[in-house]
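hey so u asked for the seq, here:
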Amino acid sequence: MDFIDYYQKLGLKKGATEEEIKSAYRKLARKLHPDVNPADKEANKKFQELNEANEVLSDPEKRKKYDQYGKDWQHSEQFEQARQSGRRSAPNGGQDFSGNFEGGDFSDFFSSMFGGSGGKRNQAKYKGQDYNSELQLLLRDTYTTHQKTLTINGKSVRITIPAGTENGQVIKLKGYGAPGVNGGPDGDLFITFSIANDSRYKRQGNDLYVNETIGLYTAVLGGDVTIDTLSGKIKLKVKPETQNGTKTRLKEKGFPVYKKEGEFGDLYITYTIQIPTNLTEKEKALFTELASITS
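ran it, C-alpha cells below
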C-alpha cells in the first residue's frame, strides 16, 4: 500500500490540534464525498484516503504511532516486540535495538528483522494492521438493499448494504487491512456506517416519525391528504375536527427490519394545522360571523 501523508491529506501541519483535525475533516468530507462528485472516477479513492487520515489522526494512540514511525506505523507493535527481543538477546552477543530511531526510516530495520538473511531466528508471522473507515450514507440509502462499489487499496470492492442498516453499524471486510509480516495474514477493514439525519423523517429503531401540514379547513371539515413516504405516496383520510398535534399510525409503513425480508416498523404521522394568512375582507367577515355564532 502506498504511503499517505495524513497531515497533507487534511491540509494540516504536524502540530495540528484535535479540533483543527476534526474541522478539516468535516470540511473536506463534504467537498470530496463521492455523491457530490459523480463525474470524478477517483472520488471513492480520495474519500477513502481522507477517512483513513482522519481515523488515524483523530485517535491519539494511532497518531502517536504515526508521528513516531511514519510510513511503518502499522507495524509499530511488531517493531516494539522485535526491539524488546533484541534487548533480551544483547547480553549474549546479540544486537541491541534500543537505540534512537526517532524520525528514521524503519523499512531497512524491518527487512533485517523479519525478511533478511540475518533474521531467520525471528521469522515469526504477524497479522497486518486492521484499518477502520467510515462510510457516509443517507437515510434513504438504507431503505432498500443495494450494492456499493468502494476503492480499497487501489482495488474495487463491491459490498452489499442491507435494508435496515443502522447508524453506527460496523461490517468487517476480511483481508483488506495492512499486509501481514513474514507471510502472516493481511489485516481486516472495519467499515462504520454513518447515516445522516433526514430533514423529513426521524428514525427510532424500525419506526419512522414525520410531521405533516394540513390546512385549517381540512382539519375542521375533514378530507383527504396525500403524503410522501419512503415507499411512495399514500392517500389518507383526515377526520373532521382534527386537532393540531393529532397523531396517527400506519402499520408496517416504517423502516425495514434488518435482514428480515418483508418486515417493517410503523410510520407515525403528526398533523400540524396551517392557519390561513392574507385573508380577504370576505373571509374575515365569514370568520367574524363564525366567531359570533360559536361564542
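Residues 18-32 form the longest helix (15 residues). The CA atoms of residues 156 and 207 lie 34 Å apart.
lmk if thats what u needed
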